[in-house]
Amino acid sequence: MEDRKLTVRAVERALDILLCFTQTSDLSLTEIAAKINLHKSTVHRLLTTLEEKGFLQRNEATDKYRLGIRIWELTTHLPTLDEPAALLLPAMERLRDRLGETVSLYLRDDLERVRIQAVQSHQAIRRVAQIGARLPLSVGASSKVLAAYAPQEVQLRLLADPEWPESVDRSSYMEQLKEITRRGYATSFEEREPGAAAVAVPIVGRSGNVAAALSLSGPVSRLSRETLEEYAGVLREYATEMGLMLR
């Protein structure tokens, strides 16, 4: 029984190492050990195994690791027809071309949102949205949309989260969620980062539940509060189309 626990722990640690590469492409042994809070000797053994299996590769010149060819082999077998990130990309590009701002697609993963697709604005000054980025559900237009349509149990756990930002009043936040479900969209104005604004709407999937959040973001110099309200109707139009595609 003890051997089984140790084996599972080794798998968890190996997966933690791979997840370190969701935000960057090259990491040293020291950087990985710091990220997952393990001794370098333990991390080195795991890195050696992952490298031997082809999941990581080491650059001898820099002594840093990056994802290996096995990762890319696995991604070739991901489903594409039913994958929102691939299926909805053409509609997202049309929305970007119509309104001129960066368009993103988010899924909720427990108490976080994950950007699974993004179409960058062609403007010289624009929001650059990184695919794979994880963000909390406490602030931001997309976060509030996903939280507003989440089960009550999720909302309660979110409010009790020790990582909840002190600057966000919980009562006001819950009132915002009620308003979002009433009007069908959310806006944010310099909530998560200075100089940035966004509007987001829910996409209803096959089950009739919210499958994703569709957002448009850009600098406050172009996206005033009035403009965000105006663009909300356009996003809802595209979200309806995308929902039908998913169904």
Structure description:
- The chain contains 10 helices and 9 strands.
- Strand 4 and strand 5 (112-119) form a beta hairpin.
- The chain is an alpha+beta fold.
- Helix 1 (2-19) crosses helix 3 (40-52), helix 2 crosses helix 3 (40-52) and helix 6 packs antiparallel against helix 10.
- The mean pLDDT is 90.
- The protein is globular, with a radius of gyration of 20 Å.
- The chain has helices spanning 2-19, 29-36, 40-52, 69-75, 84-87, 89-99, 141-148, 152-159, 170-183, 225-246; strands spanning 27-28, 56-59, 64-67, 102-109, 112-119, 134-136, 186-189, 196-204, 210-219.
- Strands 6-5-4-9-8-7 form a 6-stranded antiparallel β-sheet. It has a 3-stranded antiparallel β-sheet with strand order 1-3-2.
- The chain has 2 domains: 2-74, Arc Repressor Mutant, subunit A (Orthogonal Bundle), CATH 1.10.10.10; 84-246, GAF domain (Beta-Lactamase, 2-Layer Sandwich), CATH 3.30.450.
In short:
By secondary structure, this protein is of the alpha+beta class. The protein contains 10 helices and 9 strands.
Label the structural class.
alpha+beta
Number of helices: 10
- Contiguous uncertain segments of 5+ residues: none
Strand line-up across the major sheet: 6-5-4-9-8-7
What fold name goes in the CATH topology slot of the largest domain? Beta-Lactamase
- Cα-based radius of gyration, to the nearest Å: 20 Å
